């Protein structure tokens, strides 16, 4: 015998004295009310047919019924059988731009932090997909290999910042090629890459890398973050004051969203592009409307114990006792 919700058993333990005190209080209150209106001698004559034992019996039956209902809520289980559980899913690699341009605050609190929050939020909707994480700027680094450990993925995601990779700049091609290497060799389906960037590709040939990914049957879905009008890049100087990144000529650098490149990458691989702006990041809609509808493969199969529910027993007993209580009169026979 086991209970699926054992915490309720503790509630049952504490409920017993509470129930008893409640009924004692009710009985004393009723007697006190009657004594205030009727003399005790006269009360015994008026209520000669009243059976205090039957009244106590009714109280006991009600109390036991309540405890049995609580026991049913704890879901007692007895016996089990082994059942094979199959999980289907995709291999999804998130490639997140961590270049300095992702510090732009045209998304709150900034592009990078908003991206991390949105990816973390979507984890609750994933069922069986293996996840990987690539961080990229001038170089690309596999931050988290493909895994079913979502908590481990979440830890790797939270560690991302613009200083995670020493080499500056932005190379989307490096991120794509790192993803190509990260998938299992020989697997020609079920591979998805979610590329999140402002599209400012300063190095490499991203479109050429996209066609290589296409040959490997990787579908790339791009999310463009930031405003089309561009935004300044805030930093904190050595004195703790807020400043902005400047170019070699001392002019403030403005980061612009390059949608055209991201669209070309997505369409070249049979993926899709979404512009993320305002309160709607777009990742949940992308997964729901596009990625989740793709063919999935069996990723993991395991044997699991399926326990037999026995909550019906205390529930039926509680109903029977309530029925018996309703037929018991509190008058003497």
Could you walk me through the main structural features you see in this protein, from its secondary elements to its overall organization?
By secondary structure, the protein is of the alpha/beta class. The protein folds into two domains: 2-75 and 311-327, no CATH class; 86-301, Rossmann fold (3-Layer(aba) Sandwich). It contains ten helices and 13 strands. It has helices at residues 7-37, 40-46, 52-73, 111-122, 150-158, 172-182, 206-215, 259-268, 283-289, 312-327; strands spanning 2-3, 76-89, 91-97, 130-136, 140-147, 191-197, 218-225, 231-232, 234-236, 242-244, 254-255, 273-276, 297-309. The strands form four sheets. A six-stranded mixed sheet has the order 5-4-3-6-7-12, with helices on both faces. Helix 7 (206-215) packs parallel to helix 8. The protein is elongated. The relative contact order is 0.17. The mean pLDDT is 80.
